[in-house]
Amino acid sequence: MGCGHKDDKASLASSQTASFSHQPHQPPSPPTSKEVWKKGGRMFSILLAVHLALLACTLVSSGAFEKIAVHDYDVFFLLTIMMLIVIVWIIFYLVSTSRCPDAIPCKDSHAGPVWLRGGLILFAIFSLVMDVFKIGYYSSFYSCLSAIKIIYPIVQAIFVIIQTYFLWVSAKDCVHVHLNVTRCGLMLTLTTNLAVWMSAVTDESVHKAHSKLKKNVTEEIFKCQICQIFKNGYFWLYPFNIEYSLFASAMVYVMWKNVGRFIDHHSHHIHRLKFRLFQRTFFVGIVLGLITLVSGLGVLIVYEVQVNSSNDSSKKNEALTMYYIFNIVCLGLMSLVCIGGSVTYRFDKRDMDRHKNPTRTLDVALLMGAALGQYAISYYSIVAIVASTSRDAISALNLTYALLMIAQHTFQNIFIIEGLHRQPPKEDRKHDLHQKNPYGLTFVNVNAVSLRIPDSGSALAPSTVPGIEAIRPSELVQSLTGSKKMNWRRKFLREISMFLLLSNIILWIMPAFGARPQFDNDKELNFYGDSMWPAIVDICLPFGIFYRMHAVASLLEVYIMS
Amino acid sequence: MGCGHKDDKASLASSQTASFSHQPHQPPSPPTSKEVWKKGGRMFSILLAVHLALLACTLVSSGAFEKIAVHDYDVFFLLTIMMLIVIVWIIFYLVSTSRCPDAIPCKDSHAGPVWLRGGLILFAIFSLVMDVFKIGYYSSFYSCLSAIKIIYPIVQAIFVIIQTYFLWVSAKDCVHVHLNVTRCGLMLTLTTNLAVWMSAVTDESVHKAHSKLKKNVTEEIFKCQICQIFKNGYFWLYPFNIEYSLFASAMVYVMWKNVGRFIDHHSHHIHRLKFRLFQRTFFVGIVLGLITLVSGLGVLIVYEVQVNSSNDSSKKNEALTMYYIFNIVCLGLMSLVCIGGSVTYRFDKRDMDRHKNPTRTLDVALLMGAALGQYAISYYSIVAIVASTSRDAISALNLTYALLMIAQHTFQNIFIIEGLHRQPPKEDRKHDLHQKNPYGLTFVNVNAVSLRIPDSGSALAPSTVPGIEAIRPSELVQSLTGSKKMNWRRKFLREISMFLLLSNIILWIMPAFGARPQFDNDKELNFYGDSMWPAIVDICLPFGIFYRMHAVASLLEVYIMS
């Protein structure tokens, strides 16, 4: 197997010389003309991913319709083959990089932060439980089903275990051997995760639609009680599997962006993550957030029970009214808090962090992109309500809910993006400076959380490398006079992030575990018809749910950085 | 009105100092902390565009269905208001930039090349004719229609005239006053064009679907013959209006990317576009291309006549067979030629051009993105044909056609992207060096077409600025020995680009002017049903048609550069 041919050998040497030299203000030397063209190497892997994703998308969407002669086992067959190829590639990758000492000359400290990897393991465990339930459910029908229905969850379980291990150990790697093979392998992994995600989302939507539409017509009769438990169990665990695929996709994408990248080691020695959750003073944010979370759980349970059990339309309306009122209060509060946070950032004197950071670019793109799902649902709701002639209380609540949903997503995105682009707080660094100067120490001991310290190996603005030279005398004076004011601001931002974080969790839980006011309230269903409105919701809602999960991760980062 | 406050005044000064200094190897000084954060300024305009686009998309998609209580005049009302706002903003922009002498300190020479602006004017003229036809058609129904149906084409005509003038004079501008207003105005213009595009595409699809499905049921009776001519006329002119909107969108997007950008003037003095079409030797490419174009036009006319006039299924099958065979031959030839071109590039010794260039980045993204439309249609076709049990000659031809469509798009994209990323040919510059050295001239007279000469004002690799210092002695020797070989390669690439260009024109004309084998061949329609397959084709085909137009523009650029 060996280390393979190194395409970037020449530029590896020149770049490392540049980064270990004693002139940190000099950018790394420009790539030589012999260096393989990076865009060209990426293009092939992108083409591979696009074609595989389209093929999977075609099969999944065709398999979702009963009248179309594509069946779910065709989809499972494709997914099983893709997962097997990815498993083989991951083993090849792990063996080849462990054998070759200079395969990974540097690591991207921004990639795969510990809570992302922790979340991945949590979702992986739930996915494994789901696979066990699936195997149990399908094995009771073994005689009359095709073998692929049992093989698929078994292969998926192996895939989840191996991929989670792979991402745990390799998420930060900047690989420098087998560049093209690695790019293609990573894109294959990404596409497989997206295909599994598409399949799970479609499967869940079809199941939801069936249980909503056929509930009153026929009650399925199961011979054994345990099959029913297995089936209900794995449908309840689908949201975790869906999130697992998305988390894994995001981490694999960042790994793909980092293939062949060089990062200066200097700036990465000085910061360590210290998540001092309980050393910080906070109270209002977490209390308000916990109240929202607990009352939201209560509302969800009452709503599910009332909507699903009774055919009484007045009880259903009561449940809908309660659901909308809770959401309107929650979204209104969150919007106000986000506006407050953005205003606070306006008065913040911290520098913007403009450095190259694939993880952050992806974060921002995912936040903006995933919000489109909820935006679309809300706009369709608004048009339906405004264009309908009948007016009642539920419609008014639904309209307010849709408008606030748009406002809240917009303000929250602005708040999070501003937060992610701030430099880590300066007070801590100034503090260090004060402590350090009397002793003349040269070692910079940054004792705050400094996740976003820029890597000077990247392209632009090398003179803003954080350190002693970046602090101007005027700021030293300011740090003596204005530190109390600054601390008040930082505390406020922390409270805001904590409240928003907990509120986003409850707004994730509600749709992820089955609350569908979009169907229970029949306004839009009557307006757009039985085929268009379910299509809109089933395509857009998964993005809306993913948005909440992703906002939680980003808000945790904003919390730590403020 | 005045010049407004200049947010980037400080960095304007520092950047210009850097770019006019005598150290071309030094990158421009990093932005100061006082400089307004570019991403933040862009974010608001993006949010505005996203919300407006979603609102327009909701109304347009709802208006397309007869049973939904949103009517086309609701859509026209929104579009009219948007166009009026854009007209006001364009006038404000033109007045404010003409009053303020330093509003546009530099121009992006890559933006708005002359054939793009020429194409824009051509499509604008056809759009105006279409508007005249529309006004004529609707004014004959004036008594029973709402006024907006006549106001809309009038406002659209004014909008087209003013926007075309605006893009003709301002496409290259890098604006530096009213940064945020300009960004929002440009995004509003972009969204308006996209909304007009969506509306036109939907209108045309609905019209096509009606004429296909209702053709045999009822024949519409018009009181006056002239109304019928007007109606047919404006539906025939729709493809031009659709392309106009997309061309304008692309140019406005590049202007938006260039707001607040600084470009070094040095590197832009030395190149001028010299499109020496008839001084170059070519023969095979243009002859083959013209044969394809003419025979394609013949095939299209025969196909349209046979499919539309007769209800005889054997004649229809004949027409489909002829259409598929022509396309298979054409696509096969194009794929082979693209592979040949890519192989030629592999042996090409020219350097890759890695410099920042928003126009090129957009070109590549649009090529890759627009190809997805045709990919999706082809994959759905393949799945339908493979999963169907019945096999006949038409299905085999359709399958080959779909597979070749995928292959041709892929190979053509690789060829174009490689071509766009090449430096302009070196021989000309070496030639200049030879001519220059005996006389000791310092003025670099590049007499070839050098569209892609990098701007050293952008971020990376300032040492590869074209000029005398970039040419190594080994290359000088090579230029003496290998210039014949090089010329043969360049000639081959030119032939290829010219053939591909003409072939793409005929592949644009065919679907744009009504050939719909996707519906005439009823395989997929039976497989996916009457609602899903039209939805797939109507959403994806406009992107496929746009791909062809855009490929023509890109191939023209590749032709000029090789």
Short description:
The structure is a homodimer of 562-residue chains. Chain A has helices at 9-20, 38-63, 72-99, 114-139, 148-170, 179-213, 225-258, 284-309, 313-346, 358-387, 393-420, 426-436, 473-481, 483-512, 517-520, 523-561; strands at 106-107, 173-174.
Structure commentary:
Two copies of one chain form a homodimer. Chain A is mainly alpha-helical and 562 residues long. Helix content of chain A is 70%, strand content 1%. Chain A contains 16 helices and two strands. In chain A, strands 1-2 form a two-stranded antiparallel ribbon. The longest helix of chain A has 39 residues. The radius of gyration of chain A is 26 Å and the shape is globular. About 18% of the residues of chain A have low confidence. The interface between A and B is large, with 55 and 55 residues.
Query: Quaternary status of these chains?
Result: homodimer
Structural class of chain A: mainly alpha
Mean pLDDT across every amino acid position of chain A: 77
> Which sequence of SSEs, written as H and E, runs from N to C of chain A?
HHHEHHEHHHHHHHHHHH
Major sheet of chain A: size, sense and barrel closure?
2 strands, antiparallel
GO cellular component, one term (chains A, B): plasma membrane
Organism (chains A, B): Dromaius novaehollandiae
Protein name (chains A, B): Otopetrin 2
Main location (chains A, B): membrane
